[in-house]
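Tutorial handout. Part one gives the primary structure; part two gives the three-dimensional structure as tokens.
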Amino acid sequence: MEIIEEPLKESGISIDLQERYGRWKKNTKLLYDYLNTNTSKWPSLTCQFFPDLDTTTDTHRILLSSFTSSQLPEDEAIYISTISTSKHLNWASLNNFDIDTMEFKPDNSTKFPSKHLTTDITIKFPNGDCNSATFLPQNPDLIAGASSDGSIYIFNRTKHGSRKLRQVQDSQLLYEARFNSRGNLVDDISEPNEVLSIDWNKQKEGELLSSYSNGDIKIWDMKTYTMKNADISNTVLSFNFDAMGTNCVSWMPSHESLFAAAGESNIMSILDTRKKDLEINKINMKHHSQGINSCRFNIFNSMLLASADGNGRVNIWDIRQLDQEPVSTFEHGSSISAIEWNPNLETILATAGQEDGLVKIWDTSNSEPIFVHGGHMLGVNDVAWNAHDPWLMCSVANDNTTHIWKPARSIVDDA
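Part two.
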């Protein structure tokens, strides 16, 4: 068991939350098989594990961002960071057992990787705040960043060097392409239309789904990009879904034409790009309140769709009966910012608390929570599962922390 923590910095966090953090910290050795906490200058609104793994050092790459809320635009950036969870170190040998402490210890000759999250590549964000970022599944070197200025910026990781080489300063090199239906960028504070969510098509390479604060949904195609045409204004599809704002869009993993959309008016629909009227089915608005913030298809069974709202409710739906009652319902306890299905365990779902700072892991087969991560002291912005380690997670929060953690198997196996 390895626990790596950074000391808590002074802040305006309430005494109750600090006391909760203290209780959590005292029990970390019992709660986790691995825990690594990191503090940065700014919070990240997004996190995603890259699909690759360096097995020689057990090094994972994670996509993160910095969110300054326009206070310091020069600090707005997308980061590719690395972390080793040290699984490659073989300690489980009688030669490594310390009888005094009753623990396995590494050999003195063991070379340890860095204990903390290391920024490998920094990509300066061209304009606005980075609300979300995600890599192209078919080519993770291409990264899309959703901006508060209404643009989606596409970056090529290979053109941004590493921390050992340089950080990009030349504005001409900042992005590969930009999707914005307004054409040339014109800051219009009177009509803000932020990009709230983005999702790459898993079946049709280069097709990007996006949603906006004015309720629009747009689909973009990277195939329209040329070196002479980096600013792309033509969409594959564009329509208004929810006049109060479309908070989340998500492609069905197994289909190139079907996607889910969820909005601030508590509406959620399944849409088909092949249909003229688009909508296939929708939920009854009574099943959610205070806006639906996130929706995700189950990776193993695309007929199952999870949705979460600003009141903390999570609904699991059979999309073939979307206009009926949900398959199951459970309560996080406060507003939810993000949900993610486990890519290795088909019934396991994580919910991120926008207000309570808690990440809860649920077994949706019985709607019971099996683990609560209480290490953040402000709202959690995003969570991500690791594809190589079934229980390894990343979570980012408004207290400027990034946590990489794994619940103790003794807890999740007994749940």
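Part three, for discussion. The CA atoms of residues 77 and 124 lie 4 Å apart. Confidence is low (pLDDT under 50) at residues 163-171.
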